[in-house]
Amino acid sequence: MSKNSITRRSARRRAAAFGLVVAATASAGTVTASAAVSTAAAPAVPARVAAHISTLSNGDRVTVRGSGAHASTTVTAPDGRSEPAVQMTVGGHAYVIPVSVIASGQAYDPAAYDAAAMAGAVGTTGAAASPAAVTPHYPLSILEIDGIGLDGAAATQATTFLFNTDDLKRYAAPIALRNGVARVAVPSGNYCAVTVFATFDPATRTSTEHVVARTDLAVTASGSTTLTADERSATARVGAVTPRPATIDGDIETIDRTDAGGATGEVLTSGTGSTWVAPQPAARVGALAFRVLDVGAAGPAGADPYRYDLSFAPSDHIDANQTYRPDPSRIQTSHNVFATDAVNPAHQAGWDLGVSGPNGGAGTQHIVPAPGRLTDYIGVSTDDVFWFAEYMPVENAPNQQSELEFEDLGFYRGPGEVWRTWGHGPLTPQVGQYTNGMACNACVDPATGITDFGITEFADSDPNSAAHDLGPGYTATFSVYRDGVQVASQSGWPHTELPGTTAQPGTYRMVYDADTTGSGLPMSQSTKTHTDITFRYAPGSAEQAALPADDFCYAANFGATGCEILPALSLDYQLATDGSDTGHLPVQLLDLGVGHQSYQGQGSRAAITGASVSVSYDAGKTWVPAAVAPVGAGHYLAVWPNNAPKGSRPWLKVTATDAIGGSISQTVANAYTIG
């Protein structure tokens, strides 16, 4: 097995798991039931691999990527800054409670922070249920939770996350303590309780969390049971020893509690200051798995910015020593270069690094200088942890629903060094040439004839880029033609699927027009694109390579076996501009790569027969041909003068052809800026 195979499969699983699972509400004094839901047939338009965004009642925004075992959640404040939060994932619920809410000491309803309920999604993994009233079928008892703060007085800034460990379906919910006390009616039996005490400084956005778990708690059938959660018992601070000097600026911990029947719920804590935990033994009923999923630490300010993000192995108990040491042989050194738009007013961007374990995860967004660079040392201890990275080259806090995100779902490739440039333009739609596990843009399942047609909305100069605008801020139309006749057309996302009766052999065109000018984002470059791709679909053609098993195919119901990659052309722009996509030379250079859609090296090998580049200095009214010379292996060097005033933004038009009748034509408005 290659060192990258686990990461690639994880990316495939993450991308294939859409939405959130919804189950019955588990509130105090009630019992939940479950019911199976049917699986719908494949839609005409494939489900979009994208994030789901919800706005919490306090105004924070929750972004959930993936679902099920590999869902990862990021919480951001209205101004776009990352916010620490505590999550409880159980039975289809996904409670996401910002630390600021717990720390406020004000009464709140945990049900208002159930991101799964806000999503209104349909279950994707096993049984689920709708939130209906259910008659209790278990003896109910009173559980009193007494929270004691660091000063020995009643704790007003605490929430307890309670699991029934005989059967999670009997009871699992967060309980907010009021004036240090909570009384709830629950089915008698065995429980696990995780109480989180929190403080939060809104000026610095730093949190202090004390996590006090009770691995096993018996709630008696008669009378009442008292649980005392003492914040002073959380004496072990979570930390790590880093090879280079660094200061901890965030951490993520998970407590997975498995009931007697094998079902698992999880509490995830994330902090931006310090986190302390109380030692606890292994579970007597079911199982406990405590894990430090990420210790983030930033190096000192200077010309060589770096940070650490380190994950460690799980334990069946919570140890009194929470200082960890990474394994140097499993650290990936990730060199990142950040580009941005020339008119980015803040000269900063969002860098989001997320991690997920077997039962979920979280991400933390960092604000980074842009243009800029950052070395991130990413470490793992086990192969069941998956890292993703996202880069937002321009931020728009007042309109958070419009946000351009470049993502890499398999960011940890294994030990060694990797280099990555993010957001370097022009930003263009492409079918792509990916080396990581991805969803196929244009593939056919020969067994059924079902065919997918699609384009990645935004690609930059890195071959593994896949970006989209999360909100309604841009307009787009996507059409598919067969032998000159339109067979599909839609607005928005450029992906559609044709059944075997429609997707007959022939010559196909995909035409995609996109306009970002209405997004509200501070973008002056790559504002409009027109992309026209022609290729031929012929069953059994040697130019339709098999899709690798680590990728997935919508047409084959998210599998890969048997799917073939259609021979659509893709462009790779390596434009000689700086980190703000600005060209400063009197002569502009472009290394243009032309190739076919490919995944991990698999795709058509048909020869590229030619390419042309033209430039317009008057918004597309007139065009001047660039000098273009082939340099081998599908690459062309294009040269043209930057003979327009400083601040001008030339348009580019590129065409290319192959030896099997394929072609691509792409126009990019405001492709770069002349400096």
Q: Enumerate the strands of the largest sheet in spatial order, edge to edge or round the barrel.
A: 5-4-16-15-18-19-24-21-27
Put simply, the count of helices is 3
The first-to-last residue Cα distance is: 48 Å
Number of beta strands: 51
Assembly type of the chains comes to: single chain
What does this structure look like?
This protein has 675 residues and is mainly β. The chain is built from three helices and 51 strands. A hairpin with a 5-residue loop joins strand 1 and strand 2. The longest helix is centred in the first third of the chain and has 12 residues, at 5-16. The radius of gyration is 26 Å and the shape is elongated.
Descriptive key words:
675 residues, 8-stranded mixed sheet, 51 strands, single chain, disordered N terminus, 9-stranded mixed sheet, elongated, 3% helix, 3 helices, mainly beta
Short note summarizing the structure:
The protein is mainly β. Helix content is 3%, strand content 46%.
